[in-house]
Amino acid sequence: MGCWDYRIFGDDVALDAVAELLARRDYRNMLEAYLDSALAEADDYLEYDTCVYGLVAAALVDAVQNGVDWNLLTDVLTEKDNEYVRLLQELEAVDVWLLSEKADRVLEAVEGENSELRALWEENRTLYPLWLENLHAIRGRIRSNENLPEEIQRIHREKAMCDADFFRLTDLLDWDQEGEDERVLEPLIAYLAKCPEEVIIAFDDRMAKLLYDLDSAELARRIYGTDGHFSGDEFLYIRCVALVNGADFYYQVRDGRRELDNDLGFEAILYVPAMAWARKYGKELQVYSHMTDVSYETGSNREKW
Questions:
Q1: SS3 state at 106
Q2: HSE-up (13 A, CA, CB side) for residue 40
Q3: DSSP secondary structure string, 130-155?
Q4: Helix, strand or coil for residue 246?
Q5: What is the pLDDT of residue 175?
Q6: Domain coverage including residue 48
Q7: Does a structural domain hold residue 116?
Q8: Are residues 85 and 206 in the same domain?
């Protein structure tokens, strides 16, 4: 094995990583596995091969997200190398933008103090600055987020989402798994976990606002026949049902054109932001600490009680 260039594919191990992708063609899962392996070692010691595999994944995410810059990859491979062109073309059909934040974190880790690859490059005073500059160029392109889906770009930029964004996301719920709340929620949690953190926070804030707008004595009377002598938690969980049944259902409940059943609740939706954030960063659920702009707890909307 050897390295002949400071750029990403100028390394025999990097070419091995690409060859494995071409052979198996399970592109999305393999790229994520390359990145996850690097992140798993990031707080300990990142071995050479793990670094290189992670860099290959990050560079390919960048190439698909932001267009191919062969100068960032290698001085040997070009657009004339048919198998690599095919790889990049086929990667365009995969939502690799969902891996962009992991790619960013891997690039940061590879140039960090725990990286064997960085330690080796530091020994080469001539090429080390070029190697580092190359990583920074790739990382800068990924962090620009210019080629994320338009709606994700907007949420990321504005740090807020509208009702339509929220209900478009809840359309991901898998109701074939009804009765197993976590399985119903899994596609939504998985999607949010791969979005920028701002999208998770925006989802949390919009969910709180939608529930806040249903927090009223009028709705309680419609459900219970009274606006007192009922469980505040139960009323919250019943309101959650309106969130997970789509925009039309929600607005009909809010406007008094549809009733909620006091025997049905969907508390689990409340924990989606924390679960997505915890999965994204490999943290415990309780570490999530975002406080929404308004509270969804029963009685918080004082104007309506």
A1: helix
A2: 7
A3: HHHHHHHHHHHHHHT-TTS-HHHHHH
A4: coil
A5: 95
A6: 12-143
A7: yes
A8: no
